[in-house]
């Protein structure tokens, strides 16, 4: 479909590119110990961008009417932004596996067995268990009028689980998930179950919140909130708009020397891996922070053109939207510390697993203040109980400048790879 579309487009515009994505998703939901529902969806979306008389136009469709799509894109270009966009030429692509046969071949019975097995592992008296298993397979095809034409297949399998325990007016919810391009083995599902059950056990006893500027250990799940400002600040659009506090600081040491962050599109079985981005630019590893020093930022073609820098191979596009820069697999490098070593460094503080309201407010500025959704008090290196009514606050950039430690066990949260992070001087207060 893309070939004929671009042949028509090149006769009416100076340049054009397109991305065609297909997806088939099967979702199973288990509640109360049984299969509650199954759902199947099938989608195909084609996105076209044209450059006509120096202006960009975009359009998308889920139908096979390429003529109507082209007319819509040309109409958009008549009122579009003036950008001297140079589409990429053909280039060798890196080798990366993005589709695994075990996921493609997985049957409904296989998925049901996976879900029921996890339900059985998690079932406890007085607790409600919910499990979702989702299998997605599809393809991505990208091409442009300079001769690039590439495609690859994709597979993703996600398993999410949650335990809810209600005792009077206290509601405890503990959740976790696993996502990969490959099918989980027994070790992966066992680790997922044990992660949830361990946190459920830690929550058996209540504990009062501490108060003051204290050491706080963020689990990989909780550390997402600390990494979010950096993710936004390293986005090329934020740099171009002048709202990134990291703009103009490349090469400067702003963080602890232990802190290294890389975006890697070649990680085995990680859902964000791919050989080429949605604008036909080959992907590559990108060092955002190297031993505390600011490195590179991510750019799509348009933002890179406006900034006068090369695109980095990070564009993603939906069926109806314009391409935007987005990360592949964002990874914080592991540190040298074991879990017990990190806990022993806390005379009195918190272990934070989940926060409320992450992503709200002026995230890119780095300042955060969030109530805890799931946290535990740590006294003399021991987890003594669950803390309910507490909040944590601070500036993520400043806290990352004085790390108390980084765990050596990196956990993959979908396309995020994070170790436990011990931050010194986090403001902790009761609520």
Note down, in words, how this protein is organized.
The chain has 431 residues and is of the alpha+beta class. It folds into 2 domains: 2-201, PmbA/TldD fold; 205-431, no CATH class. The chain is 22% helix and 39% strand. It is built from 10 helices and 21 strands. The protein has a 6-stranded antiparallel β-sheet. Helix 4 (108-122) packs parallel to helix 5. The longest helix is centred in the middle third of the chain and has 17 residues, at 186-202. The N and C termini lie far apart (57 Å). The mean pLDDT is 95.
Features:
431 residues; 6-stranded mixed β-sheet; PmbA/TldD fold; alpha+beta; globular; 10 helices
Strand content range: 35-45%
What is the terminal-to-terminal distance? 57 Å
User: Compute the gyration radius: what is it?
Assistant: 24 Å
Strand order of the largest sheet: 3-2-1-4-5-6
Low-confidence sequence ranges: none
Number of strands: 21
Secondary structure topology:
Blueprint: H1 2-10, E1 15-31, E2 34-52, E3 55-61, H2 66-78, H3 101-104, H4 108-122, E4 127-144, E5 149-167, E6 170-180, H5 186-202, E7 212-218, H6 220-233, H7 236-241, E8 261-263, E9 286-290, E10 293-294, H8 301-307, E11 315-316, E12 324-325, E13 330-332, H9 339-344, E14 348-355, E15 367-379, E16 382-387, E17 390-395, H10 396-400, E18 403-406, E19 411-413, E20 416-418, E21 421-430
Parallel strand pairs: 7-14, 13-20
Antiparallel strand pairs: 1-2, 1-4, 2-3, 4-5, 5-6, 7-21, 8-9, 8-13, 9-10, 11-12, 14-15, 15-16, 15-17, 17-21, 18-21, 19-20
